[in-house]
């Protein structure tokens, strides 16, 4: 809009309410980064690498190609929002313990995709994990360790179910 108009966006990110006034065309990733939410990363800017992955109202999306206006009235969960009272979520712990997080740049996107998968399918096989992580681009791991991490997280979550983020 040539007159410098902004759009109001109200959303909850990792349990915290935000009220933004954003220029039309602002991406969710731009809004999150401006709000100091650092988990989602800008790598490709086209939705091809998944380093910017977030959960928007229960769906895994690439924040770099999702307009921030889509988050109006919504709930956004990022990898750092999975922490519970300073404790790692089983997905995060499994990534750390299996060596699936090497340079760490793509890790938040992997963690979000893994979390989304395990919400839908608590007992995925290796093929399902590979399919779910298929869009995440990583130059360090060779994908073996991230797949192992997701399978390990699934095992842990099945044996000791924990409440999800924001649960009492």
TL;DR of this structure?
The chain has helices at residues 28-34, 90-98, 107-120, 126-133, 144-159; strands at residues 7-13, 16-22, 53-56, 59-62, 75-77. The chain is an alpha+beta fold and 168 residues long.
* Count of discrete alpha- or pi-helical segments spanning 4 or more residues: 5
How many domains would you count in the coordinates? 2
Q: What's the mean pLDDT score?
A: 91
Q: Any low-confidence stretches, pLDDT <50, length ≥5?
A: none
CATH architecture heading of the largest domain: Roll
Question: Any idea what the shape is?
Answer: globular
CATH level-1 class of the largest domain: Alpha Beta
Order of helices and strands: EEHEEEHHHH
How large, in whole angstroms, is the Cα Rg?
A: 16 Å
CATH homologous superfamily label of the largest domain:
Beta-grasp domain
In total, the number of strands is: 5
**How many angstroms does the end-to-end distance come to?**
43 Å
Structural class: alpha+beta
Task: Explain what you see.
- This protein is α+β, with helices and mostly antiparallel strands.
- The chain has two domains: 7-81, Beta-grasp domain (Ubiquitin-like (UB roll), Roll), CATH 3.10.20; 84-158, DNA polymerase, domain 1 (Orthogonal Bundle), CATH 1.10.150.120.
- The protein has helices at 28-34, 90-98, 107-120, 126-133, 144-159; strands at 7-13, 16-22, 53-56, 59-62, 75-77.
- Strands 2-1-5-3-4 form a five-stranded mixed beta sheet, with helices on both faces.
- Helix 4 packs across helix 5.
- The radius of gyration is 16 Å and the shape is globular.
